[in-house]
Amino acid sequence: MFKFILVFLLINCNYGKYLYQTKFLSVPVDHFSFANNASFKLRYLINDTYWDSNGPIFFYTGNEGNITVFAENSGFIWEIADTFGALIVFAEHRYYGESMPFGNKSLINNSYLGYLSSSQALADYVYLIDYLQSNKNYADYSIRNPVVAFGGSYGGMLAAWIRMKYPAFVLGAIASSAPIYQFQGLTPCETYNDILTSVYNVSSNNNCPYIIKKSWPALRQVLSSPNGTEWLISTWKLCRPIQSKESIDTLIIDWLTNVYSNLAMANYPYPANFLAPLPAYPVKEFCRKLKLENINNITLLLTDLGNALQVYSNFTGKSECLNINSSTSDIGEDVWDYQACTEMVMPMCSGKFGMFEEERWNFTKYSADCEKRFGVPPIRPDLAILEYGGKDIKSASNIVFSNGLMDPWSGGGVLQDVSPNVRAILIPDGAHHLDLRSYNELDPKSVISARKFHQQAIRHWLKTYKTENLELNSVNIQNNYA
Ligand SMILES: *[C@@H]1O[C@H](CO)[C@@H](O)[C@H](O)[C@H]1NC(C)=O
Ligand SMILES: *[C@@H]1O[C@H](CO)[C@@H](O)[C@H](O)[C@H]1NC(C)=O
Ligand SMILES: *[C@@H]1O[C@H](CO)[C@@H](O)[C@H](O)[C@H]1NC(C)=O
Ligand SMILES: *[C@@H]1O[C@H](CO)[C@@H](O)[C@H](O)[C@H]1NC(C)=O
Ligand SMILES: *[C@@H]1O[C@H](CO)[C@@H](O)[C@H](O)[C@H]1NC(C)=O
Ligand SMILES: *[C@@H]1O[C@H](CO)[C@@H](O)[C@H](O)[C@H]1NC(C)=O
Ligand SMILES: *[C@@H]1O[C@H](CO)[C@@H](O)[C@H](O)[C@H]1NC(C)=O
Ligand SMILES: *[C@@H]1O[C@H](CO)[C@@H](O)[C@H](O)[C@H]1NC(C)=O
Ligand SMILES: *[C@@H]1O[C@H](CO)[C@@H](O)[C@H](O)[C@H]1NC(C)=O
Ligand SMILES: *[C@@H]1O[C@H](CO)[C@@H](O)[C@H](O)[C@H]1NC(C)=O
Ligand SMILES: *[C@@H]1O[C@H](CO)[C@@H](O)[C@H](O)[C@H]1NC(C)=O
């Protein structure tokens, strides 16, 4: 149903590469009412080895998943902490990993899930920041440790939003691959899939999108023929699913759609581990296996496609069968769907010219699916715009938005400078938040420059942090109307 979940990438290679302590802070279940005084323990990871006690706090605003995954995959933060004398903190988003407001009841139904929202999560983070700042002198903020927020994907949206909403607590934000414009009326719904199509137009095979486009009717035809599903299961070596025939068909089509997205997001210049290990530039490898001369023979076309899928599902050659069950085990996919059904409604569709089957955005259907699944339809699809301002963010400051242009989510990202203080950094050959990952010798120049830019921005923010207060005081004196 929600095939376009905001998946960030779990390139979980080198587990245990970074060391930290795991801690918990008690935070309110509901920050926005006085009717519920319950609290729960929010998990965060902390490393103070590089911290100079006056130094900044590098605060990762956790996304929709186990926070340890983000700590492992945000090497950039670890690599620069020493130079900045920074305290490293990765905060877990409520309702993911171990941060469950109602323990094992948290995900039962809307009565418990109802406290899941980006605004509650941001308030959790502010609670934690306030706790971490060693000097809580609210009269003179320049004494407190400055905080720089970092985040990728949904976490990047949170990093940008926490700076906008709580500028007193967060000095600046590095928001990587953060599609804050992926909401109703801000970005055409087909943009995401159009970008995917262009990513699949690789130099090794310009016909790749065309062949993929041709594969959908072929698949439909095979799946509707008497033994077609059986044939496909055996040709593609699918793990034998127990579901009914109808749901298998949907499963195959949905899974395939997700694979195209995931391959593009993980289109990194070096081999990486995403669900299963992937080669460098996996999209190129995938497309190499599709042959134009076979498009008119369904058997050959789908056999080619099955071979190409091996790049995604069997790069190691060790997979016995292809598991089309949604297998993003590290991320709370179901939990994200609740967010997508309430606050994070991101219209998606595919147009005539992309490589996907044409599909309109149908809010009525979306809403009905949400109601059925969670007992709660989106109250209003523009809720996130009401909360965060949509494209009207010119009053914001100290944010760097970075986007890899090969990342389908870049379509909903901030791609142009908003003001001298809200900057857009483009990484033409980058995939999904590549810049937050650790250094790799195969990194393209553009991502190396982006990382340099981030550091310059942070340095600049830190430099003005203490002086700004004085400037503000002098402004206040000049504006003394009395
Ligand atoms: C902090 O991280 C560094 C680098 O990974 C590591 O050497 C150090 O032991 C860590 N410190 C703590 C307290 O975990
Ligand atoms: C929370 O509220 C309940 C009743 O409304 C009260 O009995 C309890 O003491 C309160 N707990 C705290 C920590 O304030
Ligand atoms: C989170 O990831 C760690 C590995 O980093 C794993 O040990 C743990 O079981 C995971 N927890 C949850 C709740 O998924
Ligand atoms: C939830 O946890 C409690 C205590 O830890 C346990 O007794 C109960 O069976 C669990 N419930 C579910 C649905 O897992
Ligand atoms: C959620 O489940 C709890 C416990 O089973 C129940 O008391 C409550 O009424 C349910 N809420 C909804 C909205 O279904
Ligand atoms: C693929 O790229 C080539 C140029 O590299 C362009 O001429 C062609 O129109 C593109 N095809 C699609 C389907 O976008
Ligand atoms: C389709 O399945 C039936 C029953 O399993 C079998 O008898 C028949 O030979 C199959 N046909 C083809 C074309 O594979
Ligand atoms: C498709 O190709 C296969 C293998 O070359 C061949 O046996 C079959 O007859 C072809 N089908 C059509 C419809 O051309
Ligand atoms: C994975 O690759 C190996 C080696 O090429 C092959 O034997 C195996 O059948 C493949 N598994 C699947 C599911 O295709
Ligand atoms: C796929 O998911 C279904 C339903 O959750 C489960 O019954 C089945 O065993 C799973 N299959 C595989 C291969 O994991
Ligand atoms: C949208 O979905 C609803 C419910 O599934 C359906 O009745 C309606 O015809 C659809 N609208 C369009 C424009 O496809």
From TrEMBL:
It is found in: Lysosome. Its EC number is 3.4.16.2. One of its GO terms (molecular function) is dipeptidyl-peptidase activity. Keywords: Carboxypeptidase, Disulfide bond, Glycoprotein, Hydrolase, Lysosome, Protease, Signal, Zymogen. Its main location: other. It comes from the Eukaryota. It holds the Pfam family Peptidase_S28. Residues 1-16 form the signal peptide. GO terms for cellular component: lysosome. GO terms for biological process: proteolysis. It is an enzyme of class 3 (hydrolase). It catalyses: Cleavage of a -Pro-|-Xaa bond to release a C-terminal amino acid. InterPro entries: AB_hydrolase_fold, Peptidase_S28, Ser_carbopepase_S28_SKS. Cleaves C-terminal amino acids linked to proline in peptides such as angiotensin II, III and des-Arg9-bradykinin. This cleavage occurs at acidic pH, but enzymatic activity is retained with some substrates at neutral pH. Homodimer. Belongs to the peptidase S28 family. This is Lysosomal Pro-X carboxypeptidase. The gene is LOC108737591.
